[in-house]
Amino acid sequence: MPLRVAVIGAGAAGLCALRHLTARPSAFTALGFEQTSNVGGTWVYTEDTGLDRNGLPIHSSVYKNMTTNLPVEVMAFPDFPFNEDLPSFVKHTDVCQYLTDYTDRFHLRDHIRFNTQVELVEPETTQAGRTTWHLRTRNVTDPTCGLEDHKFDCVMVCNGHYAEPLVCSLPGQSQFKGLVMHSHDYRHPEVFSDMNVLCLGAGPSGRDISIEMAPFAKQVYWSHKKKMGLYAPLPTNLRETATVASLKPDSAVLTTGEELRLDAFIICTGYLYTFPFLAPSCHVKVEDKRVTPLYKHTLHTEYTSLAFIGLCSNTLPFPQFDCQIRFCLAAWDGSMELPTQAEMDADTECDYKAKLATGEPHRHAHKLAGKQWEYYDKLASLAGFPPLPRILQQISDNIDDERANNILGYKHMKVEMIAPDACILKKCHE
Ligand code: FAD
């Protein structure tokens, strides 16, 4: 009998899960649940912020003029390239179209229940000691439909990790009279015309939003804890500063003691991992951006029929999803034997402690960055699928260098393949 698999979410991760599951009907039957009416997740742009028309929090964190910060040559799923006429760095609408094309190419739509929110996931253990999963879903457009109960053998959690803002609370923040916004709600730079704006946060959102606002704002301060000057040259009215110690009604006081007059304060401190639908009996802990107990950042070590896709950060997200999903399916179809629970927990702990030993903070437990290549290779070798092509690393490294040296122009570069395993970057347009 094929295993019945539930997939929560139809963003890139959920679609990839459905693509692999539906390709193997003798091993799996799959049903995806998506709380919105579309595929694409965070790439489905909306002008709205706050709640959608069904009363759900707006999921997308994409802004109006956003282009990708990775080239499509490394963004694509391994078995589905982007349209080759596109530039390397594309608009969010192109990524949304890509995911729509992927859905259509692999006939995934019929396997997804749209406007259906998963409210509850709980394990049920039979007398024979086998775990099955009880899911409760809700039709978000029609309250009269009531709740529906389902049973599955396995669950893939693909609910996305850029939707629930991690909001800082600084001394004096409630007294600040200017505009305060999390990057999740940022849509248009024009809103900040002629303002003195501070963007707090060292990640890609803080960096990219600071740069996008510079032509409109009077002065932009990009405030972060990282080393200064990692990206150059920056716009003349964009200044990197130390982080913020406190806010006053119309200014910010930095940790250096300097005071900056501000009209707006944008919080770019990232997002939280949240799984509001998991019952306590799932035994999943989320502690300051670390989710446990997971083997290889993806499979629950106690309930190995529960998987989490896409928790790792500083990666190539779509290739990461593809590898994690193939890895989980190999565990579920029995083609890969998993270590014991104790061995998996020990492996996770060893990885985590090694990370702490290099000076990384606890909250970077799932951050991979330069370690991602080894990680993908490990998943592939354990599960017996082909590793990702090495060229992805080369392209990625070249782009990282270009980004650091040419932050204002790197998105105008095109990745040109000069051999199957070699590429160069070429300037395509200004
Ligand atoms: P999402 O796209 O968030 O999809 C999750 C889906 O699950 C959503 O459709 C949601 O509605 C649904 N869902 C959630 N909870 C439930 C529930 N209880 N029941 C039913 N459905 C549910 N990646 C790149 O590769 N390149 C980039 O340039 C890039 N830039 C980015 C810029 C920004 C501003 C952000 C926020 C992210 C960026 N990313 C980028 C990362 C991006 O998040 C990933 O590429 C990827 O799209 C994440 O896919 P996902 O499926 O994990 O999550």
> How would a textbook summarize the main sheet?
5 strands, parallel
Strand pairing plus helix content: what structural class?
alpha/beta
Mean pLDDT: 96
In what order do the strands lie side by side in the largest sheet? 3-2-1-7-20
The general outline is globular
Note the total helix count: 8
What portion of residues belong to β-strands? 15-25%
Query: In total, how many beta strands?
Result: 22
Helix content: 10-25%
Each distinct ligand: flavin-adenine dinucleotide
Distance between the termini: 57 Å
What Rg is obtained from the alpha carbons, in whole angstroms?
A: 22 Å
H and E string? EHEHHEEEEEEEHEEEEEEEEEEEHHHHEE
Low-confidence stretches: none
Q: Could you describe the 3D structure shown?
A:
Its EC number is 1.-.-.-. Keywords: FAD, Flavoprotein, Monooxygenase, NADP, Oxidoreductase. Belongs to the FMO family. This protein has 430 residues and is of the alpha/beta class. The protein is built from 8 helices and 22 strands. It has helices at residues 12-22, 72-75, 92-105, 204-213, 317-332, 341-357, 372-383, 391-405; strands at 3-8, 28-33, 112-113, 116-125, 131-139, 147-152, 154-157, 179-182, 196-200, 219-223, 238-241, 244-248, 251-254, 259-261, 264-267, 285-287, 290-292, 294-295, 299-300, 306-308, 413-419, 422-427. The strands form 7 sheets. A 5-stranded parallel sheet has the order 3-2-1-7-20, covered by helices on one side. A 5-stranded parallel sheet has the order 8-15-9-10-11, with helices on one face. A hairpin with a 5-residue loop joins strand 4 and strand 5 (131-139). Helix 1 (12-22) packs parallel to helix 5 (317-332) and helix 5 runs parallel beside helix 7 (372-383). It is globular and about 65 Å long. The N and C termini lie far apart (57 Å). Flavin-adenine dinucleotide is lined by residues 8-14, 33-36, 41-43, 59, 61-62, 68-70, 75, 117-118, 158-160, 162-163, 205, 277, 310, 317-318.
